[in-house]
């Protein structure tokens, strides 16, 4: 499982289908990149195991995003992510998007996850490695 | 259920996220529009009922598409679709994309569907209304 | 152009590609539905005209979303939207997602837009009809 | 530029948003993976340079796909691609999707590209390295 406060890096290549005719990445797509970054931080195999063996899954409960600069076709974005628990039931992920050679963040986001079981009932966030 | 050889019309509005930075609709999206057109022809409620009550679902087996002209932001596309059974197991859908005021088809496609049950085994295409 | 505080309704049909394997609509997609709702409120022809004649376009600057319930395949969602200016440069859109027969909002969002010109410089939000 | 007949490998991780509620990857998404594979074979920097310096871009003209098996969440797909010119104006890409540990191709596709200039006129496919 993930470690709190550790910064995870994930690279996202921007393809044609990430952009729209305004020339930059369509705003909703950053939520996908954030999720891909979280999946790599936690590990897709671990997410599959959690679901298959324990019946547990993460669900997005709240989102905040702010946009300073648009990414363009050909960018290899660095998604920098870390997480902090908020009480037993909430896991806050902080995401930053850095363009190649960028001197400030292009996009920032906070995504709050909760954990549910097979009956879609809220359960505590699973334990982290100490 | 659908009628063979009947032409079904479905309108698709082109939004920002349908386009890419080249200015026209991203090519893969037409497969979505074709599927939306089929879902409206068959009826989403009927698709849900087929799955819930009979455990039957359609799966795409083959696709062919040809592109003559790109649709742009703001277009209200007319998707014209009809279907023909090919033997008991295959259902061929023929799709055309017409742009507003267009004098020829912008995109054409043929999508071959098969029908599977809950065990993902091939079953005959369900009967059509006579 | 849009009227402040007026509630605009926009219907979104949920197709296969809107969902993910968890069975409900993928969270990022609601940002698309919100944008489609805004495009219909403003009018796509007006958006094209603003860009072509005046070189003006809207850009998403900030987003907040909260998720209470997931929409599923076959839902016809009612997206209820209204907007309020915040000073001369910001336009806040408030969006609610209502599922068919729903007794409370499934998803809520606030999207703050700014307006830019061809040089990507901030300009005041264009005047509304009185 | 790419070499004819050389097999290029590209890895695609399957995330939540790639799947739909049937549990497997939504069929249209394979066209995206094929394009991402081509972009990496040609090089995104080369595609940007071609467009900026020479005003040349590739456009999809025809597509054929066949589906044998669905990919699932957590798969790391191997997309195997090679290209062959067909006369001076057409470039055919042959794509195969291999699932981890797969013994046969899950999806196959042929995508025919043409090359256009800034006036959207057809031009010969640019020369390959000998």
Describe this structure in words.
The structure is a homotetramer of 130-residue chains. With 130 residues, chain A is an alpha+beta fold. Chain A has one domain: Thiol Ester Dehydrase, Chain A (Roll). Chain A has helices spanning 29-42, 44-54; strands spanning 8-13, 57-67, 76-86, 90-98, 107-116, 122-123. In chain A, strands 1, 2, 3, 4, 5 and 6 form a 6-stranded antiparallel β-sheet that branches. Chains in contact: A-B, A-C, A-D, B-C, B-D, C-D. The B-D interface holds B 22, 27-29, 31-32, 35, 57, 59-67 and D 22, 27-29, 31-32, 35, 57, 59-67.
Helices, strands, pairings?
The structure is a homotetramer of 130-residue chains.
Chain A (H helix, E strand, L loop, with lengths): L7 E6 L15 H14 L1 H11 L2 E11 L8 E11 L3 E9 L8 E10 L5 E2 L7
Antiparallel strand pairs in A: 1-3, 2-5, 3-4, 4-5, 5-6
Structural class of chain A: alpha+beta
Task: Detail the poorly predicted runs of chain A.
Answer: none
Q: CATH homologous superfamily of chain A, by name?
A: Hotdog Thioesterase
CATH class of chain A: Alpha Beta
Sketch the topology of chain A as an H/E string, one letter per element: EHHEEEEE
Q: How far do the termini of chain A sit from each other? A: 10 Å
Pair of chains with the largest interface and how many residues each contributes: A-C, 17 and 17 residues
Number of helices of chain A: 2
Largest sheet of chain A: 6 strands, antiparallel
Q: How many domains would you count in the coordinates of chain A?
A: 1
Number of strands of chain A: 6
| CATH topology group of chain A | Thiol Ester Dehydrase, Chain A
Oligomer: homotetramer
CATH architecture of chain A: Roll
Helix content of chain A: 10-25%
The shape of chain A is elongated
What would you report as the Rg of chain A, rounded to the nearest angstrom? 16 Å
- Overall mean pLDDT of chain A stands at 95
Strand content of chain A: 35-45%
């Amino acid at each position: 499982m993930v470690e709190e406060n550790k910064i995870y890096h994930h690279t996202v290549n921007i393809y044609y289908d990430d952009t729209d005719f305004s020339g930059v990445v369509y705003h909703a797509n950053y939520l996908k990149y954030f999720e891909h970054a979280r999946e790599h931080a936690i590990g897709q195999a671990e997410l599959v195991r959690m679901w298959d063996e324990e019946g547990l899954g993460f669900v997005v409960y709240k989102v905040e995003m702010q946009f300073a600069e648009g990414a363009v076709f050909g960018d290899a974005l660095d998604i920098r992510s870390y997480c902090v628990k908020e009480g037993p039931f909430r896991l806050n992920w902080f995401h930053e998007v850095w363009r190649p050679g960028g001197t400030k963040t292009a996009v920032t986001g906070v995504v709050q996850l909760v954990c549910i079981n097979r009956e879609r009932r809220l359960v505590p966030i699973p334990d982290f490695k100490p």
